[in-house]
Fold this sequence. Notes:
Elements: E1 3-6, H1 11-22, E2 28-31, E3 43-46, H2 55-59, E4 64-67, H3 75-89, E5 93-97, H4 108-121, E6 126-132, E7 134-135, H5 143-147, E8 150-152, E9 160-163, H6 165-177, E10 186-189, E11 194-195, H7 197-208, E12 213-215, H8 219-228, H9 233-247, H10 257-262, H11 269-275, H12 277-281
Parallel strand pairs: 1-2, 1-4, 2-3, 4-5, 5-6, 6-10, 7-9, 8-12
Antiparallel strand pairs: 9-11
Helix pairs in contact: 1-6, 3-4, 7-11, 8-9
Amino acid sequence: xxxxxxxxxxxxxxALLTEASQRQIPIRALVRDAKRLRVAANAAVSFDxxxxxxxxxxxxxxxxxxxxxxPFPGQADAESAVVDAARAAGVAHVIKLSGMAANxxxxxxxxxxxxxxxxxxxxxxxxxxxxxxxxxENLLTLAAPIASGTYPAPTADARMTQIAxxxxxxxxxxxxxxxxxxxxxxxTLTGPTADRGDEIAIRLSEAIGHGIRFVDVPEDAFRQNLLxxxxxxxxxxxxxxxxxxxxxGGAMExxxxxxxxTGRAPIDFAAWAQRHSAMLRSQR
Length: 284
C-alpha cells in the first residue's frame, strides 16, 4: 500500500515524516524541491500544486493520499484538481487535513476548506476529514515578544483550544495506515484544555522561567504585527478573522478524537511549552 503526502516540508508534513520514520512506514513525498525536505522520505517525487502536469506521475500507484497544503487564494481549485487527478490515477482514499475553520462561516481560510471538503465528498473516493484547531506551534511566531515578557493575542478573556503538530501527524499517519477503519469519518482534533490568554501566559512563564504577561491587543495592531513578520495581506486577514472567531467563543470545543484514533492522550500546552522552552527563550 503506497501512501503519498503533499506539503511534506511544512509543519505537519515534517512531523508526519518524522513519525513515519520512527514507525518504519514508507511514505512517498510529493514535493516541489526535494532538497527542502527536513526529514527523509521513502521516495520523493516532483509535484507542484501550481503545475497540473506534475499530478499524474506523482500519484501513479498511490493507494492513499494525505492531502495537505498551506492556505492560499485558490486553494480549493488547486486541491480539487489534485483530487480529480487522484481519482483518475486509481487512488482509493483521500485524507484531507482541513481545519476547524471549515465550521466558521466568516473564516477566510474556512471558505477554501469547505469547498475542498465538498469536492472530496462528491468525488466518489473514500475519504477522511481531519480538522485540527489552532496549532501550538503557531506561538513560535511570537517568540520575540514572549521572550521579552508579553504574550500578545486579540482574544480578550475567551478560551481557545490548541493542539501540537505531533498529534495531528500521529492521527493522519494512523488513518493512512488503516484507511478502511476511518472511511467517512470527520475528526476534530484539540488538546485536552481550552485556555484563556492569561492561563497561556502562566504556562509560558513556567516553561521559560521568567514572567510572561498576556496582552489583549487590538485587531489592527495584531494585523500589523503579522505583516511586519512577513505575512501577506490575505494571510494576515485570515489569521485576524480566525482570532475574531476565538474572541466570539468559537474555539472552545474539546474533543477526545486524538485518543480515539491513536490510543494516546494529546499533548497538553504546559508539556508543549516545556519542550519548546529553549526556542522561546532564545529570542530574549
